[in-house]
Amino acid sequence: MELWSRVLLWELVLLQRPWGPATSDSSVVSESAVTGEAGSQAVLRCQSPRMVWTQDRLHDRQRVVHWDLGGRPGPARRLVDMYSAGEVRVYEPRDRGRLVLSPSAFQDGNFSLLIRAVEDSDAGLYTCNLHHHYCHLYESLAVRLEVTDHPRAARAHWDNEKEVLTAARGTAALLTCVNRAAVWTERHLEEAQQVVHWDRQPPGVPHDRADRLLDLYASGERRAYAPPFLRDRVAVGADAFARGDFSLRIDPLEPADEGTYSCHLHHHYCGLHERRVFHLRVAEPAALPSRPRTPPGPSPDPTLARGRSVVNVIVPEGRAHFFQQLGYVLATLLLFILLLITVVLAARQRRQGGEAGYPGGRARTRAPEPLTPSPSAGDDHADQKSAKAKGKDLNLAEFAVATGDQSSYKSENLQLDYKNNILKERVELAHSSLPAKNIDLDKEFRKEYCK
Ligand SMILES: *[C@@H]1O[C@H](CO)[C@@H](O)[C@H](O)[C@H]1NC(C)=O
């Protein structure tokens, strides 16, 4: 038992490591190669509307929750909405006092809608919509409401996409919508949370040893660290935070400017951490004779189109999320393979232990037809018994190995160094039954898989 849990633990530890701390780092949202002519101007585009500095002059009205009712003929209808610093607004007169939103929703993250007395006309598809205008975030949650005559039929279940609530006519129904993420519940934190950095790696220098060129703060503070040869030629627009445009201008470009430039956008309050990477090459003017002398690189920021629509803003994070999910799936597969190998090895050891009758533990090489009368009459019986017992818990692949061709399996010469230790372990293991161990592993596996 102990061996198994130890093996499992190590496998889990080994598998977890690569995916552990990566989340706090900014994600690279674009990487591009830019070639500029020496003597001309280069522009490295770094833009994001999500970084636009819009101080809240409207008394914290940037967040709004609204409940809509759809899923029936005609367009969806706005039922009720509430700003983070405003009152609840109920749209239909007949719904006043009947539909209830908690006034403290933006403090406790509970945006649930209470319908005091359900009517037949209330049935439909409800959506709880959260908009964060300041951070350009949007989240939506659907709940289907069905109305029944029979109080006993009232229930709630999950249809794999949303909650389906069945409420008896005349009773109260609570449509649950809870989101306690800090961005929806905290106020007054958004100021001074925006920072932009520009880094430069001279050719051949890795990212972690990049030189800082510029720090820009939303408060207006700026710090320049560029090496003297570059300092007077790099600039970011003065209204960068007002326009969300942090593009770096290098004018005029010199051959020594070559290298990798990164633009880091951080909006801590909104959870935005993005990095755009530019590989800048400087060509001799003569090398590009036929090209018109247009400033190099002013192709639009490849991520800008994404930033313009609310849906797409989420894409970079979604991509990171996708890779994380992929990582988990691969990790799970790897874990499964390791488990399979462990189980198969253990099954073999157990069987072999039954064959190798003396504690010295050197595996005996058996001829296909044994010359000595073997004690295997009992052993075979034990094998069959254990195979029968294991059959319940081992999956097909394992079972196939466990009951594989006995003669070829017995003639294998297993002179491995670890054999003695494993035999020792086997004696300990023999006291607890194998199937129970398999169940444990299975559970652990499922736990890991379902995470
Ligand atoms: C949310 O608020 C409602 C009342 O508006 C309450 O009945 C419900 O229990 C709350 N849910 C949570 C998860 O706090």
Automatic annotation (TrEMBL):
One GO-annotated biological process of the protein: cell adhesion
The entry's protein name is Matrix remodeling-associated protein 8
Keyword terms of this UniProt record: Cell adhesion, Cell membrane, Disulfide bond, Glycoprotein, Immunoglobulin domain, Membrane, Repeat, Signal, Transmembrane, Transmembrane helix
Tell me the segments the record calls region Disordered.
352-390
Q: Name one GO cellular component term.
A: plasma membrane
Where can this protein be found? Answer: Cell membrane
Per the record, membrane topology reads: Single-pass type I membrane protein
Q: What assembly does the database describe for this protein?
A: Homodimer in cis. Does not appear to form trans-homodimers. Interacts with ITGB3; the interaction inhibits ITGAV:ITGB3 heterodimer formation.
- The answer, when asked if Glycoprotein is one of the entry's keywords, is yes
Location of the Ig-like domain: 21-148, 151-267
The transmembrane residues are 326-347
Composition bias of kind Basic and acidic residues appears in 378-390
Q: What is its main location?
A: membrane
Q: Which residues form the signal peptide?
A: 1-24
The record's annotation in InterPro entries points to: Ig-like_dom, Ig-like_dom_sf, Ig-like_fold, Ig_sub, Ig_V-set, MXRA8
